[in-house]
Amino acid sequence: MATFTYSASGKLLLFGEYLVLRGSRCLAMPLSLGQTLTLDSIPERGLIWRCFEQKELWFEIIFSESLDILQTSDMTMATRIQNLLWLVIRYNPDIFLTNWYFKFDVNFDRQFGLGTSSTLISLLSQWSGVDPYLLSMRSFGGSAYDVAAATAPHPFLYSLGKRLIKTVSIPEQITDNLLFVYLGNKQNTATAVTTFNDIPTDYFQLEKMDNIAQFAAECQTIEEWEKMMLESEQMLSEILSQEPVQQKHFKDYPYQIKSLGAWGGDFIMASCRSIEDAKAYFSKKRYKTVFTYNELIKK
Length: 299
Fold this sequence. Notes:
With 299 residues, this protein is α+β, with helices and mostly antiparallel strands. The protein has 2 domains: 3-165, Ribosomal Protein S5, domain 2 (2-Layer Sandwich), CATH 3.30.230.10; 170-296, 2-Layer Sandwich (Alpha-Beta Plaits), CATH 3.30.70.890. Helix content is 36%, strand content 27%. It has 11 helices and 12 strands. The chain has helices at 75-91, 116-128, 132-138, 145-149, 172-175, 189-196, 203-218, 222-240, 245-249, 275-284, 293-296; strands at residues 3-15, 26-41, 47-53, 56-63, 69-72, 100-106, 156-159, 163-167, 178-182, 257-259, 267-271, 290-292. Helix 7 (203-218) packs antiparallel against helix 8. It starts with a strand and ends with a helix.
């Protein structure tokens, strides 16, 4: 029996959220956390599709050889997967889509919002040979920076026009003083994007975010990095008409805090001068899911 294995990295968008959708550069990092696809040939006609989260089955579909859904634990999600597979067939008519067992394994909590959909797109692309950006555009939409992160070896600058512009090396003087804290309220990216579509922005705002992402990629000290965090939060607060997360929840924190991704509850990035002191601060605030940069970055 033939067996194939593919892997894709999760993501965090450090600078450039929202405005990357309008052409601004962003700075993103691929994660050590991600998703794998193990593909086994089976004697039965049709497809078996099973998804596991940290080794626990959370979703499955049984397809006929003509991709009819015979059985599933979630019909709405199964229909989305069915449409994805139809896209694969459309752009690679020679793909053999029967007698396969697809086993997906996510090694992080899906509520973290670290890229369940983008890693899925990347895995299907790696297997089928269909361009991942095309699959992303025709299915989930968005800027597709997360699709770039799925196979990127290092942090990188990205834009809609040029996609992955270049990889970046962030100095230890910065990375050793960063924490990533999960706020426990997973945001719906599609809803956030739809809301943002109705908000006007101008050339100067896009240029400013472009410069923030570029300068962040060139920062050498934590103080320079914190300045970019603050400038980003102030500008997006005005655009989104939302209070920055630090003013809302962490006014007494002595360093800088920045929202990551859709504002309102996924991860925040916090600068510090002592990892232990910062962890103690967030623990007192009852935020228990805290990662250092080195725990998250793709090795």
